[in-house]
Design brief:
Elements lengths: L1 H27 L18 H9 L6 H12 L4 E5 L6 H7 L4 E5 L6 E7 L10 E15 L2 E12 L2 E10 L2 H15 L6 E5 L2 E5 H8 L10 H16 L1 H7 L4 E7 L6 H11 L4 E4 L7 H16 L2 E5 L2 H4 L5 H9 L7 E7 L7 H4 L7 E4 L5 H14 L11 H9 L5 H16 L11 H33 L11 H6 L5 E3 L9
Parallel strand pairs: 7-10, 9-12, 9-13, 10-11, 11-12, 13-14
Antiparallel strand pairs: 1-6, 2-4, 3-4, 4-5, 5-6, 7-8
Pfam families: AAA (PF00004)
Organism: Kwoniella europaea PYCC6329
Keywords: ATP-binding, Nucleotide-binding, Signal
Length: 505
Amino acid sequence: MRLICCLTSLCVLWAARGASAESARDTTQISWSSKQPEGSSHHPKNPTSIFIDHFSASRSGTDTYLQTQIAALYSNHSVVTTDDIYFDIFRFAAGDPASIAIREIDDVEPIKRTVFVKPSRRREGEGTVAEKAVFGGWEVAWKNKEFKVIVATWAEAYRQVTQWHIITDEPDAARQFIRSCANYCSSFRDVVWVFEQGSWRPDRGLWESVQKASWEDVVLEDRFKIALQSDYRSFLKSEKIYKDLGVPWKRGLIFLGPPGNGKTISLKALMKEVNVPSLYVKSFHSWGGDEKGIRDIFSRARSEAPCVLVLEDLDSLITDQNRSFFLNEVDGLEDNDGLLLIGTTNHFDRLDPALSSRPSRFDRKYTFPDPSRAQRRDYAKWWQDKLRSNKKIDFPESLLDEFADKTGNFSFAYMKEAFVSALLTIAGRNENDPKKLNFPALLLDQVHHLRHEFETTEAVSSSSSSANTAQTPQNDGMTGYGWDAMQWAAESMIFQIPWIELKSR
């Protein structure tokens, strides 16, 4: 009986509290369309006080709160609100200053943070101090239209939200402004879009690196060069042919082979040449898991098509957990027209057979193997021609064959390191020393040093691999994709592409 009485008392207390809370909510409810009466203690004073009052109290729904309160404050105007990630009036003004002018509003007190902007390169200076607006207002003149824009930025869950409020008497003009600004900021001008840590970001540095690449920097045997270049060039020009044949206009390529033999420089040369957006994926991981990451990646690629979608280290990206979802996206449950998908891998033998052996996902495989003896000699010959005018260096013909013989299993990256290290030794000596250094001896000494490093690393890797093999049974289904079979199988669709980087970076 006592328990029933206690429960009854609690119910009465909760009901009273609920009624009190409901009453409180009724007295503070925001009007969506009408101006609040003068004298109301809840009427906003100005945009800054709205922002400060909100974040000084326990509230939820920041986006809705700010939107409705600013709409109430400027009730005689229309307020068009957007939190589109591509809408940024400052980037728009920086890239197209002739079409837009911006000045800060005097009657909106800004909230700013002072931040240090580090230079992209140390030699460019010590950096600078700048201000970042957390909250503020600006007057914007665009074409023959004028707007008042109030922006607020805050952290929410795993992301940062920026919400823009465009105050105007012409809402249609504001929407046109949003479209023009977001269209400009989402374009691929002077950036490569990179997906990493669950979101897309524009990477100016990668774009600059791509601009330095050229097919002239890469030496390929004619047969292989024509095959690779014709593949992607013909694809991008063949939309009508694909449509006439009734097949999806999409293409998948894999660049594979040991590191240091030119997959990256060739990929950059391709990205520079094609006049379509390039999207570069480093990881599928996102706050919503790999499935959300994969969905966001392919959704962006479809919206940008025709485009190039690059998946770095494909063997690491695809796991047992995300494989089926990835395959569904690649197979085109949605329209993948115009998608040129390029995957890179140093470990083709680790790649799932569902990707490595089935056309229509990745139709053609191009391998970049270690150079043959003839190619190693040609590489040394190129250096001989490059150094011919240097009177301090003696480069005899006999060194070509000796270098080629001693660099078996070297990648082009290892051979380049041998030449660069030898030349740095010469460059670092005293200029007043009349003695001429023995360049052949220096070069072969570097080759010997790199050979020791190469074999030591290989032995450690082999030991580690053997230990892992003893602990984890290998998949017999993958033995058909061993390195030897991959290189020499006549029935395979694999092109072997030797590569030489001509220009040092």
